[in-house]
Amino acid sequence: MSSIQHDVKSIFHKLGVPESAYTGGTLAVRTPVTGEIVAHVPEVTAAQADTVIASAAEAFKVWRTVPAPRRGELVRLLGNVLRDNKELLGRLVSIEAGKVVSEGLGEVQEMIDICDFAVGLSRQLYGLTIQSERPEHRLMEQWHPMGAVGIISAFNFPVAVWSWNAALALVCGDSIIWKPSEKTPLTALATQALFEKAAEAFGGVPAGLSGLLIGGADIGRQLVDDSRVPVISATGSTRMGRAVGGAVARRFGRAILELGGNNASIVTPSADLDMTLRAVAFGAMGTAGQRCTTLRRLIVHSSVYDTLVPRLKQVYGAISVGSPLTSDALVGPLIDEASFNAMQESLVAAKAAGGAVCGGERVDVNGAASFYVRPALVEMPAQTGPVLEETFAPILYVLKYDTLEEAIALQNDVVQGLSSSIFTTDVRELEQYISAAGSDCGIANVNIGPSGAEIGGAFGGEKETGGGRESGSDAWKGYMRRQTNTVNYGRTLPLAQGVKFDV
Ligand code: NAD
């Protein structure tokens, strides 16, 4: 048994995951750290998935009647269990998704943060009261639970995305069914075990309140097509979202779609270049370029281009690439060979389109089965070819501009609309950028990069990013149904708009 296999076994033992949950199954799980297989996880059959869905639908009928602050207590306990097991789960994220240590731990911290947020929400979930035009009438809106919420998640945030959905859905009175990425089932098994610990401390929850479906896209499709699941929250590629969005719409379900990004930052003449440099480095190379909010396009004013870009190239040349488990490198591995090949194809296409490529080559860290790369910086003459696509790898395309209008137009001239940012100390530029005529993205930051969101704000993007919002602010409304109530407490029956109907 290799040291990583031993690590996985020991983490699962401490978390109480039985060996049968990760051995002898059909789904081989590789760690991108070395490329070796570390587990064989059993996948659910269609019939088993059906039982999980039926059970979640039943659990909902009980859970919706539990007072919301009491539901919040379950999520508070979940947050505490996550606090107690942060190191273990964070390490498993590093093993399974290849994140460097601080990012693995950061992902678990994000889970804790959203639990705290949801606990507060559980005493709110406010509706409105509205003035009625009719005498002795009261008009109000209240929010009720929706039902079972299907959560489909991507490999790159293997557990945080579940928690954004789960913590809110649970306080909203919904049950949850999780279909994690087939590339990251281990962290899902661990998270489910932690949920069960919280449920036990809570004194028990309805059976099936939180279901887990381990499997590939087929199981995802089954979940998406099931009308017992009124909400599907799907995080992943735009290709997946197009299929899921269409299928959910056909049965009039509700889809929350969190899809691909092609995020840009604009560097203006007044930018603090030292800070910009650091922000760009984290935004473009952090998580080895495998965040939905990764900085992929840098749009630099011609007056600062020759100062900033050579410095950036130095940082790119010097950045540490290495194992997240045995080094303190800042850039870990790509998830798999397909990801490496996609990166190389984009670099070839960028060169063909006139790009000047710096970096991008493979780095041998742990042998032929793992895929580490030096992040690539590509100076492009125009926004064409691969610049218009999301390649899920650390490639930063650099473009030059002369007027802010031109820069904003370039930034917005892609099909994705997730995140964006501007580096400026000029208040006019700043305001123009975040105005209605500025960035068209769901996230528009100032003097920070496009990635690394906190949970307090609503998270998501426009256009082919899918339009969904998760996490903070009023994203909870996506997990509830709104009911408008008109209450007549008088003895007459005045009709709205002065309509007469005397019988
Ligand atoms: P992916 O689309 O390959 O897979 C995501 C999930 O969808 C997996 O669980 C997969 O099994 C499932 N799936 C695939 N096809 C399906 C179908 N037809 N029906 C139901 N389920 C299906 O994505 P990935 O490679 O795991 O993740 C990377 C992508 O995710 C990137 O595009 C990234 O930008 C995006 N992402 C977006 C956000 C966001 O919040 N906007 C967050 C993280 C990742």
Automatic annotation (TrEMBL):
Residues 25-484 form the Aldehyde dehydrogenase domain. Its EC number is 1.2.1.3. Gene3D superfamilies: Aldehyde Dehydrogenase, Chain A, domain 1, Aldehyde Dehydrogenase, Chain A, domain 2. GO terms for molecular function: aldehyde dehydrogenase (NAD+) activity. Keywords: NAD, Oxidoreductase. The active site is at residue 258. Homotetramer. Belongs to the aldehyde dehydrogenase family. This is aldehyde dehydrogenase (NAD(+)). It comes from Acetobacter garciniae. The lineage of its organism: Bacteria, Pseudomonadati, Pseudomonadota, Alphaproteobacteria, Acetobacterales.
